[in-house]
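Look over this record before class:
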Amino acid sequence: MLFGADVFVFCFAWLTMAQLLAQEDKEKTTALKDLLSRIDLDELMKKDEPPLVFPKTLEEFEYAFNEHGQLRHTKTGEPFVFNHKEDLHRWNQKRYEALGEIITQHVYERLEQDCGLRRQTLPVDATEDEPKTFMYMSEDALSNPSRLLILIQGSGVVRAGQWARRLIINNDLDSGTQIPFITRAIEEGYGVVVLNPNDNFLEVEKAEEPGGGEAAPDGSDEPAEKRERKEERESKRRTDFYEKYRNPQKEKETDRIPIRGNSSPEEHTLYVWDHFISTSLAKNIFVVAHSYGGLSFLDLMIQREEEVKSRVRAVAMTDSVHNVWHQNANRSIQGWLKERCCNWVSSPEPLDTPVEPMLPDCLHLSAGTERHDLTSWRSFHSIFRFFSKHMEQDESVEQDEEKEPDDREVSTATPVSMRSSNRARHEDL
């Protein structure tokens, strides 16, 4: 009997202690919630992260391009430093992006002042109020009867005249921009068209919803359901403490208004072809397409196959991400690519070394670098040699076709031997 009483006392004491501990935890939780509710997180965190306001010019950033096209600090002479403030990655990234926008404007100035290109507004019939974009052309782009060069960059933040923003900031203008391609093309008698496939929409600040964001007044007559929702929102606000710490400064919400006829890289490429390139006088059209630019060109071929095949002499891709299977390119297009296209890909092999592709869609050669963003610059000279050899090949074939009937019998073997010779030269690239 005493044993049973001892058990009862022990259980009672255990239950009492458990209740006391639970009550203590509840009081601690309530106290923590009360403390968090009193903290102005925005004000607290803004002391750690400086305002997201940055200079508007290179001069204000205290950077400039030297005689070698390298970005250097005007006082220290040092290259650009990303980690301007330690342990503030978000702020440093926003600063980098702000500098990138200035770099974009600087490249535009170089295209206009140094390369003599002119800006062409798109759509061509745009009204004053609708969103617009633009591309660049040389003065003789549409009137040059001989040859025309089309430049198409990859996807992302890069705009007309750029291959890679990171290279412009960390390396130099030559490796990161299309300026060397434009300059050489003009020297060799090409007209030039520079596409701007990533400028696809106008970004505007989103209008606030009427009455949005304000908490409902607290009152005893507030419906229970509404009060519960309010408590859930309050609970979420408190539990989001860490996320709010990471992003203390709320950025403006924006809407994107697409640009008519140019709302994607593929659509932009097709629009420029239809309204400009297809009407040009150039007998020989050549294309340099980097990364996603290769996909955009293949899409153009699928949309305008006969026009492209009859006008374009050769295509130089650099680490292109096109895929003839996923994009449903027919056999005719695939055959044309094998004859007229070369893709310089990132590889540890020396420049122009043949590389076995996963998909045998065209000739693949090493760009002499394993860095994707450097493939265009590293293959620069090889690309122009590739174009010149295709020009020579086509001109020779045309000369043979123009010969008199009496002469054709003598030269019947010429095209075959020529193709063999050209194939050998192709492999030597």
Summary: DSSP finds 17 helices and twelve strands in the chain.
